[in-house]
Specification:
With 398 residues, the chain is an alpha/beta fold. The chain has two domains: 2-148, 2-Layer Sandwich (Nucleotidyltransferase, domain 5), CATH 3.30.420; 197-380, Nucleotidyltransferase, domain 5. It has 15 helices and 14 strands. It has helices at 61-73, 108-116, 124-139, 158-161, 168-173, 182-196, 248-258, 262-271, 274-279, 285-293, 297-320, 331-336, 338-346, 357-360, 385-397, and strands at residues 2-8, 13-19, 24-32, 39-44, 52-55, 88-93, 104-105, 144-148, 204-210, 214-220, 223-227, 326-330, 367-368, 377-380. It has an eight-stranded mixed beta sheet, with helices on both faces. Strands 11-10-9-12-14-13 form a six-stranded mixed beta sheet, sandwiched between helices. The structure holds adenosine-5'-diphosphate. Residues 211-213, 240, 283-286, 331-333, 336-337 line the site of adenosine-5'-diphosphate.
Amino acid sequence: MKILVINAGSSSLKYQLIDMENEQLMAKGLCERIGIDGHLKHTPLVGDKPVFNEDVPMPTHSEAIAAVIDKLTSAEYGVVASMKEIDAVGHRVVHGGEKFASSVLINDEVLDAIKECIPFAPLHNPANITGINACRDVMGDVPMVAVFDTAFHQTMPSKAFMYAVPYEYYENDGIRRYGFHGTSHRYVSARCAEMMGKPIEELKIISCHMGNGSSLAAVKNGKVVDTSMGFTPLVGLPMGTRCGDLDAGVIQFLMNKYGYSIDEMLNILNKKSGVLGISGVSSDFRDLGKAAEEGNERASLALDMFYYWVAKVAGSYAAAMNGVDAIIFTAGVGENDQTARAEICKYFGYLGVKVNPEANATRGQDIMISTEDSPVKVFVIPTNEELVIARDTRDIVG
Ligand code: ADP
């Protein structure tokens, strides 16, 4: 079975074609500037085919999908003979609200329910729906599955997901913590259990997804019991450009003082804050590391704040789960930045965590970076959200 995985944004669309016989990645690519002019980078990964990297007109997502199918099936760049070889499509959908606690086969009713979640994710869900409709346009009645970023977190108990605001905002408006990066937390926690040779139902795991956006999840016996992102992905840890946790009073103070509109204020908190805002240097941890080495104190502060917050939230999850068996690092920073991992692990002395520096210096593979005798095991596991989407799609369609 061959599955096309689609992650549609408002003006971009990422895709992977995966052969589920051996879970081999056959091709991947990115459409950009959809609705503006259009550019496609298509990389075949089987056979000896060249990369296609050129402008292609894409007035809408439908032309983007058509261009993707054209390249996947073309004699020069293709990896399958025809569209018929693509058995199903798996779509990443950001917000499933309380309606979706797992992946589902897409039908009209499901599409309506995804539409109903648009107020919770006004930028992302419409783009995801556009991607689904574009596939329907181009690929006809091929079965499609929706995999939600929020779904894995739906097991959180109400004491963890409720905000302490008047209860009717939850009842009437769905105001609560939803959490994001669920597909990533799910993948790495399952893989961690596999690596430990234990059923996930017997483990207490803290999953640290540290990328441009960052979140932690406490996964107890295979179920999320808490996570750091909330109603939106703005809160929790300080991130690349997002502020993380913030006293709402600061918003009122700054809006009054500088006359910002709420949109301007949220733009500052989403795009100009986090480690970028603190350092004034960059949102990229590589740039921050370099600047800190060169003596830039604000870059050092930004990094220290990030490490501190990861450790502090992880500590609260150890308390919430009454212990922890394993801590996982994943995503851009978690997978690549050994300094970040080492600095964060220094806070875990009280848990007895011991890092093996040699293992911590390894890159690009699933690896345990704690010593054998460390009572809490620490892992680096490169995330693979596309593979989870493909597996769910296979299981549902299969
Ligand atoms: P996204 O949240 O956009 O999916 P990623 O998980 O790809 O982000 O993470 C992107 C971030 O990973 C970059 O902003 C960069 O800070 C960080 N990163 C990537 N490689 C390294 C590295 N070698 N060292 C430190 N940080 C890195």
